[in-house]
Specification:
The protein has 386 residues and is an all-alpha fold. It has helices at 5-32, 47-54, 59-74, 80-107, 117-131, 136-149, 192-205, 215-239, 254-262, 271-288, 294-303, 306-327, 333-336, 350-377; strands at residues 113-115, 178-181, 185-188. It has one domain (5-385). Strands 1-3-2 form a three-stranded mixed beta sheet. A hairpin with a 3-residue loop joins strand 2 and strand 3. The longest helix has 28 residues, at 5-32.
Amino acid sequence: MGQTRTQRLSSIDFLRGLVIVIMALDHTRDYFNIINFDPSDLTKADPWLFLTRWITHFCAPVFVFLAGTSIGLMQATKSRAALCKFLVVRGLWLIFVEAVIITYGWAFNFGFITMQVIAVLGVSMLVMAALIWTPRWFIATFGFLIVFGHNILDYGFFPPADIGTPVPLWHALHNTIFTLDLGWPTYFAYPALPWIGVMPLGYLAASLYAPGYKPEVRQKTLVKIGVGATVLFLLLRSSNLYGDPAPWQSGDNSLITALSFMNTQKYPPSLLYLAMTLGPALIVLAFAEKWRGRLFDAFVTLGRVPFFFYVVHIYIIHLASMALAEFQGIGWQALAGGFWMAPANYGLTLGGAWVVWALIVVGLYPACRWFAGVKARRKDWWLSYL
C-alpha cells in the first residue's frame, strides 16, 4: 500500500512548523534580550548567544525551498495559467503584507518600510510565475546557476553599500543590508538574487512527492541530496576557496574555531549558508515521514498555517515586550517604537528570552489549531492567500 496524500505531505508541514517555531526564537530574543551588537560576532557574543542566533538560520532557506515545493504540488490541481495568476497575486500580496502589516507590527508606526523574508517570498513567487512556463531543464539551470554562482559577485563586481547609503534599486539583488528612500525609508534585509534561485530548486523537489512515488525511494533521494549538500559545505568551507565572502578563522579554542566555521553569511545568503542549512533540513524531511506522535502532530498543525503564525507572533512579541517594560517600571512607551529603541535598563537574560519564547509558542498554538481547522473545513478562495 502506498502512502496517502496526507501521510506524504505531513512531513513537509512538520518541517515548516519546526522552523517557524525556531524563527520565533530569534524575534523573541530581539525584543527581550537587548544587545547592541551582532549576535554572530564572535568577538562579542558568547557561544550560547551565537548558537541561539545560528539555529534560526535554518528558517528562511526552508521557508523559501518549501514554498517552491508547494508550488510544484499545486500543478496537480491547477492549470498553468491559473497557477501563474495565483503566484502573481500572492507574490504582490506578500510584498504588501511585508511593507504594511508586518512593518507596523515591528514598530507600531508607519515611519519606515521593511523588506524581509515575506517580501522575498513574494518576489520569488513573481519570478516563479514566469518560470513555470519554461521547461524543467531551464528551471533547474536557473536555480542551480544562481545558488552556486551568485557568490562570484563578491569578487568586486558588485561593490557593497553601507546600511544608510542611497544606492540604485538593483543593489537589492545582491547587496548587504541597506536602506533606500522610496518615499519612506525602506529597509532591505533580504537581497533577492540568491532566494529566487532557492525557490525553483524546491519546485523541482515536488516531483519526489508525486502520487505513486515510492516512499523509500523518496526518502533515500532526500537523504542523498541532504548529505551531498552538507558534504559540499564541509569541503568548500574547510578550503575557504569559494562560497562565502567571510573565511573562517582559528579561535582561542576549538569551540570558537568551530563556531567560526559555522558562521556563514546570511545577507545575502551565501552558497555555503544555503548548503549548511538546506542539507540537514532535507535529511530531517526524509526521516520525518516515519515520525508520529502528539508533538509531531503539533508541528504539523503549525506548519499548515505559517503565514498566520508569522503575522500574529510579531504583534504578540511586540505587545509582550511593552508589557515587560511597564512591569520593569520603564513604561510601555519605551518599547512601542521597536526593540532598537529599548533603554539600557530594559530586558531579560538570554535564558529569560528562551522562557518567553516557549510561552508565546505554546500560547499561540490553540489559535493556530483553530485556524488550521478553518482552512481544512472551508474552501473560500481568499484562504489560499493566508
